[in-house]
Amino acid sequence: MREIYLVRHAETMPDPERPPASWQLTEAGRTVAASLKGLLPELVFSSPEAKAMQTARQLTHLEVTAVQEFREHRSDKVAWISSDDFAISVERYFSDRENRVWGDSHAETAARFRAGLSHIASRLDGATRCTVVSHGRILCSFLGNLSGTSGYELWKLLTMPTVIKLAVADETMRIEAISYFH
Known about the structure:
The protein contains six helices and eight strands. Helix 1 packs parallel to helix 2 (about 50-60) and helix 4 packs across helix 5. The chain is globular. By secondary structure, it is α/β, with parallel strands linked by helices. It has helices at about 25-35, 50-60, 85-95, 105-120, 135-145, 150-155, and strands at about 1-10, 10-15, 25, 45, 65, 130-135, 160-170, 170-180. The chain is about 35% helix and about 20% strand.
C-alpha cells in the first residue's frame, strides 16, 4: 500500500498584473508551509506554477520535481476577475464536467491529474510515500471524480494549504484523511 499526500499550495498574494501561475506565496503562506516540514514525506512532486513550487520547497530539503500534469489549467492568459466573479466561475466549472471555464474542462483536468499520479508512481523507485503539491480546482476535480461527486463542496472547504492523504493499492485510490491548515 502506498500513501500519497496531496497538498493544496499555501496562501498566495494575488496580483492583477500577473497571470495566476506566477503568483508568489505570502509571508504567512511560507510560514505555514514550512510548519509542515517533517510531517509529510520529503519525496515531493509539484505543479510547476510558482506558488506550488514555493510551497513544495518549504516541505523538503530534497530536490522538488515539477510535473506538468499537476498545474492548475493550461492557459497562462487568464484575465483578472473579482472574488465574486471567481466564485461564480468556479461553481460553473464544477457544475458541468465538460465546461471549459479556464481552458480545460473539469473532466479533462481530473484525467490530467490522474495521469500525473500514474507518471510519478513509475518514478517512486520503491518508495511507498510521497507528497504532491498542486492547486484547489485540479485537486477537487480529481477527488470529486474519485469519490463520485462534483468536487465543488470540497473546494469550498479548502484552506491554503490543505493536506489530503490518499491510500493507493494497485489502481485503487481512496481518501483516508483531510487536514486543513491556516
